[in-house]
Amino acid sequence: MRSFDDLRGYLLGQLNAAVRRPGMYGGEPVILTLLDALAFADDRTDRWQTELDALVARGAANAAMVSGAVHEVLGHRSEDVMASVYADLAHRQGWLSLDADSRIPGVLGERDCLLDDVIEEYGEPPLWLGGTNPKYSKTLGYPDRSGSLVFFHFMPELRLMATRRGDGGFRDSFVFTPAGQSR
């Protein structure tokens, strides 16, 4: 029989894989199930419920959960943007493993750029959400100087659509590039 630590480690591994490739793991329902299971395992169900309530309060979730709020803000569903919201929560809970240690500056511009430009400027991303196929959207996550995550949301063809940070109003947390504004 496996130990509690083995089971918890397995859940952490599954969560980290699911936020990076949500479509391959069953999307938002699976991510939520894994987060709920980790909250239970770590005896943090009250703290986790507070996080979920805060998502609704700041407009980052609605009756259709985070996917619905993303659709309201962007005008379309985006699994990588949805997964980035949960990755941010998992990061705050200490459940997210970053692939590298990187700190980006505190202020990000609103200029048009490509995925390669962001990687050249900030280095390999500690968190890559979505596949590597350039025909599909994806999100890169980097911790800022405070340790909070900043997300770069890319449209298909790897053009930067928006950056997002913070846990204030969800709609207000997006800074759209000119290319992103035109969508």
Features of the shown structure:
183 residues; alpha+beta; five-stranded antiparallel β-sheet; 8 helices; 46% helix
What this model shows, in words?
This protein is α+β, with helices and mostly antiparallel strands. It has one domain (4-181). It is built from eight helices and five strands; from the N terminus they run αααααααβββββα. The protein has helices at residues 4-20, 22-25, 28-41, 45-57, 65-74, 79-93, 115-122, 178-181; strands spanning 127-129, 138-143, 149-154, 160-165, 174-176. The chain has a five-stranded antiparallel beta sheet with strand order 1-2-3-4-5, with helices on both faces. It is globular, with a radius of gyration of 16 Å. 34% of the residues are buried. The mean pLDDT is 90.
